[in-house]
């Protein structure tokens, strides 16, 4: 059932009205009138296309004083914040409405997916087997595209909570009271500083992530398991018996505190702090839940019986109160609480119990805690009190299996060139000789490095000496790995499992990490009295995960993994310490920045297929880790569609993917919305995996590969000609986008560029995509595709005899029948719908050199027109013509984004003129101007939603 637009519009009007009142009260009528004039002109222009409205809009903005510009940027930015809340509420209500109607239309829900698979002949045994073997892990990263402060996000949650209360029947007084509360929160929002004065540090990023666990993941994930169990139990073939408890197939990961690649502020202390904060958070949750259960489970032995195991657990309780002598569940929970408090004290070195407790033995591991909870569950079930379990106990029991004592697995990540420098120093300081020659590691050939490293892995003598003094970089990196070893020993193997090697280009890049693990206690080299190596321990070492990022790296990936898996020592390690699974990470950001949209997507797809073949050859299970960002140019778009469009055999129940920047806030702002996105993720992984097992999978690769290979080469050449082959492009980019201003925005601890200076090559992929989104051109999400399709249609492939009409029909068939190609075009269509050449042209006016401006923007404009035309040829319709509701919603949203774009251009122009002028501008005026630019960045990113 489609929800009427008016309900969402009512929410937006209500929130806009309250925001307007707040602005009027705080800032006065004159600026309020200016804001209204700009708003009406922008809305009218978007609706009617009247050029006069556009002129009024631009004239009004150029005439603003600096103070007025600042206030206007805040007003439109906060309106977009509120519009997002209304849109999210609308989507959530629509999901619930479909579920309440008890139909099967909600794509991506457990009910829809399970029934769909049932209709396709997938058995319940196959589905249950999937969950037994599956591993689905969203991984939070601190990559800097989230522009909102935590204070702002907290207010968003309060406003969303108030909006949700409107769904209840309200008396006249209750409605008035609710509007007063909303007004209070929105006034607080208006008077809360939107921007950070200081750059985020790693500790701040850790706290921001912890807030998402507290508000979203801890309540949402246990409920997700309960919900899934319910729908599994309602399947027809399972009507008589309940499914067994689900294993912990969905868990959380994080990079925050362990990702050093390009971030000089991550060290051993941040790693230990991240783990401590995660552990403290989960213990606070457990202690609170056990305390609530102690209040809840008041069952008396005068009215029910208990199992012997429960009675024994109760007898261990230090509680001597006469009031609870007949309440064995409460007594047992007091004992559990005491053990849990002792465990928390032992692992966090702090007392975090919320009530006084007794001395007790700490739990040795989460399984022991879960075992005690299971005794309570079994006793309740065996004594006709199963419904009591469903109140809270089942969710707590599930949470222990998911979160353990560590909350989320923390990944380590570092660049391969850092490892090479460290080993070069270690070998030099140790004066090691190999094959009769002193080792200068950096100068060795690849084969020599591999031979040396394999030999090193068979050595028991240390390469690192405690008496040597090492460089700051080497000392820091060794310190982090030593800290990781201590963390794993203290909190368990689940705490840190992966070591990701950025810029993996060779086999030695992976072997280096094994050697460094061996030198720091993560990998042991225990031998018997005869000097023979002892069998590997299951807890030994971290998984070395290569990250293939650029186009050449992706193309070399399968060969590197073939050599890696072919090493006996590596294969043995995978089988005994990694459950037979090897993980490979694919980078969407750098491949796109390197080769453009079409080539990046196609290279990733082909690499996945090649990896499947290599892993099948070695009989090792593959788990892909997708480094996706928010923008389409960085792998963004619908995660559900993206997973279903993966190459055949590449999901197979194993998937990790990054959740970055503003995407975290968008998907996981609260437990309801977060739970829905996690359900989508599980359903997509289930569907992609079991349909591959049953043979209902993508069969189009071989049929269309030649065409896509040909178009990819053309698209890459076109993209690289613009970005790397046109000498004026560098000047244009740094002048016509707010890249410098983004670099100064305090949205993350990592620098925007790997090196100082103005080179596209050194720029990180995230600010690259983010800056193009700000000026509404978004070239990472489409440039080169139009030329590729047009050339293919007009010229075909040399040696092939198809007509242009045949080739068009082929592309149309690819769109209709091949999930990969259809999803790629669909995501590109969304990018093109959000791009705006008129606004992009305003940004180009910031380029002072006329010839440069006209040349580069002309190339962009030509390719944009061509891409729109080719997309229409394939799909047979205008942009998003199949989704008029989305078109209307975007048009409404653009009416509030456009003024921010015009304002951003104007203030950037003023700021640059200030910097060039001989007339000195006060530091206050310059800082105010910078804040206004940053406010517009905030607002535009908020309005576009998936821009980073």
TrEMBL record:
It catalyses: oxaloacetate + phosphate = phosphoenolpyruvate + hydrogencarbonate. Keywords: Carbon dioxide fixation, Lyase, Magnesium. The active site is at 143, 593. It is an enzyme of class 4 (lyase). Its cofactor is Mg(2+). One of its GO terms (molecular function) is phosphoenolpyruvate carboxylase activity. InterPro entries: PEP_COase (IPR021135), PEP_COase_bac/pln-type (IPR022805), PEP_COase_Lys_AS (IPR018129), PEPCASE_His_AS (IPR033129), Pyrv/PenolPyrv_kinase-like_dom (IPR015813). Its EC number is 4.1.1.31. Belongs to the PEPCase type 1 family. Homotetramer. Forms oxaloacetate, a four-carbon dicarboxylic acid source for the tricarboxylic acid cycle. PANTHER family: PHOSPHOENOLPYRUVATE CARBOXYLASE (PTHR30523:SF6). This is Phosphoenolpyruvate carboxylase.
């Amino acid at each position: 059932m489609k929800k009427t637009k008016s309900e969402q519009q009512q929410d937006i009007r209500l929130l806009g009205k309250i925001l307007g009142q707040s602005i009027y009260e705080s800032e006065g009528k004159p600026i309020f009138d200016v804001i209204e004039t700009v708003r009406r002109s922008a809305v009218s222009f978007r609706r009617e296309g009247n050029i006069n409205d556009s002129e009024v809009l631009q004239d009004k903005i150029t005439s603003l004083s600096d103070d007025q510009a600042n206030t206007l940027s805040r007003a439109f930015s906060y309106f977009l914040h509120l519009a997002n809340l209304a849109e999210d509420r609308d989507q959530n209500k629509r999901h619930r409405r479909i579920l309440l109607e008890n139909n099967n239309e909600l794509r991506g829900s457990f009910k829809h997916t399970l029934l769909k698979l049932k209709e396709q002949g997938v058995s319940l045994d196959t589905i249950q087997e999937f969950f037994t073997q599956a591993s689905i892990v969203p991984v939070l990263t601190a990559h800097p595209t989230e522009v909102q402060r935590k204070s702002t996000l907290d207010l968003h949650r309060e406003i969303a909570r108030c909006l949700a209360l409107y769904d209840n029947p309200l008396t006249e007084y209750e409605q008035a009271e609710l509007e007063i509360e909303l007004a209070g929160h929105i006034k607080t929002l208006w008077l809360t500083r939107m921007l950070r004065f200081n750059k985020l540090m790693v500790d701040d990023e850790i706290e921001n992530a912890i807030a998402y666990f507290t508000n979203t993941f801890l309540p949402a994930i246990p409920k997700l398991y309960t919900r899934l169990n319910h729908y599994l139990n309602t399947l027809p073939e399972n009507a008589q018996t309940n499914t067994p408890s689900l294993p912990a197939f969905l868990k959380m990961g994080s990079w925050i505190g362990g990702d050093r690649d390009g971030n000089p502020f991550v060290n051993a202390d941040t790693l230990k702090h991240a783990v401590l904060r995660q552990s403290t958070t989960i213990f606070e949750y457990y202690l609170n839940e056990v305390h609530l259960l102690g209040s809840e489970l008041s069952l008396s032995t005068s009215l029910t019986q208990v199992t012997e195991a429960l009675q024994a657990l109760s007898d261990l309780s230090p509680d001597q109160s006469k009031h609870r002598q007949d309440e064995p569940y409460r007594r047992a929970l007091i004992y559990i609480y005491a053990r849990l408090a002792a465990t928390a004290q032992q692992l966090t070195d702090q007392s975090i119990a919320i009530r006084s407790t007794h001395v007790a033995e700490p739990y040795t591991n989460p399984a022991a805690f879960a075992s005690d909870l299971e005794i309570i569950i079994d006793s309740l079930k065996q004594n006709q009190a199963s419904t009591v379990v469903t109140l809270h106990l089942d969710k707590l029991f599930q949470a222990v299996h998911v979160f353990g004592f560590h909350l989320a697995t923390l990944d380590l990540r570092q660049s391969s060139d850092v490892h090479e420098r460290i080993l070069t120093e270690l070998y030099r300081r140790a004066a090691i000789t190999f094959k009769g020659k002193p080792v200068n590691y950096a100068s060795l050939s690849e084969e020599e490095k591999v031979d040396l490293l394999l030999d090193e892995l068979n050595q028991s003598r240390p390469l690192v000496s405690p008496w040597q003094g090492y460089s700051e970089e080497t000392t820091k990196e060794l310190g982090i790995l030593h800290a990781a070893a201590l963390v794993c020993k203290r909190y368990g193997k689940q705490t840190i499992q992966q070591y990701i090697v950025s810029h993996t280009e060779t086999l030695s890049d992976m072997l280096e990490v094994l050697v460094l693990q061996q030198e720091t206690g993560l990998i042991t080299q225990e031998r018997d009295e005869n000097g023979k190596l002892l069998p590997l321990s299951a807890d030994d070492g971290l998984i070395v995960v290569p990250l293939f990022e650029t186009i050449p790296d992706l193309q070399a990936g399968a060969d590197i993994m073939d050599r890696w898996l072919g090493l006996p020592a590596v294969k043995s390690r995978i089988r005994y310490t990694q459950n037979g699974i090897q993980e490979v990470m694919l980078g969407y950001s750098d491949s796109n920045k390197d080769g453009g949209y079409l080539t990046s997507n196609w290279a990733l797809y082909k690499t996945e297929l090649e990896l499947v073949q290599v892993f099948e050859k070695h009989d090792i299970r593959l788990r892909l880790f997708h480094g996706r960002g928010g923008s389409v140019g960085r792998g963004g778009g619908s995660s559900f569609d993206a997973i279903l469009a993966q190459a055949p055999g590449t999901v197979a129940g194993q998937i990790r993917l990054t959740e970055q920047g503003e995407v975290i806030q968008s998907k996981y702002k609260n437990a309801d919305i977060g739970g829905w996105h996690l359900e989508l993720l599980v359903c997509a992984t289930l569907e992609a995996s079991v349909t591959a097992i049953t043979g209902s999978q993508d069969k189009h690769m071989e049929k269309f590969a030649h065409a896509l290979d040909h178009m990819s080469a053309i698209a890459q050449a076109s993209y690289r000609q613009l970005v790397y082959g046109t000498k004026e492009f560098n000047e244009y980019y740094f002048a016509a986008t707010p890249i410098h201003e983004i670099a100064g925005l305090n949205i993350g601890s990592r620098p925007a560029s790997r090196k100082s200076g103005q080179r596209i090559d050194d720029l990180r992929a995230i600010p690259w995509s983010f800056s193009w989104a700000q000026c509404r051109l978004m070239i990472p999400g489409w440039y080169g595709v139009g030329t590729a399709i047009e050339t293919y249609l007009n010229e075909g492939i040399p040696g092939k005899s198809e007509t242009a009409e045949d080739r068009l029909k082929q592309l149309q068939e690819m769109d209709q029948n091949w999930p990969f190609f259809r999803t790629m075009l669909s995501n590109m269509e969304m990018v093109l719908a959000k791009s705006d050449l008129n606004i992009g042209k305003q940004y180009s006016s910031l380029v002072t050199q006329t010839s440069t401006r006209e040349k580069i923007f002309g190339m962009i404009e030509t390719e944009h027109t061509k891409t729109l035309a080719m997309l229409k040829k394939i799909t047979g319709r205008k942009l998003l013509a199949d989704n008029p509701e989305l078109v209307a919603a975007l048009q409404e949203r653009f009416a509030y984004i456009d003024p921010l774009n015009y304002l951003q251009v104007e203030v950037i122009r003023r700021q640059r003129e200030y910097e060039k002028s001989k007339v000195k501008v006060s530091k206050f005026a310059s800082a105010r101007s910078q804040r206004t630019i940053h406010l517009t960045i905030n607002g535009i990113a908020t309005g576009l939603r998936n821009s980073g």
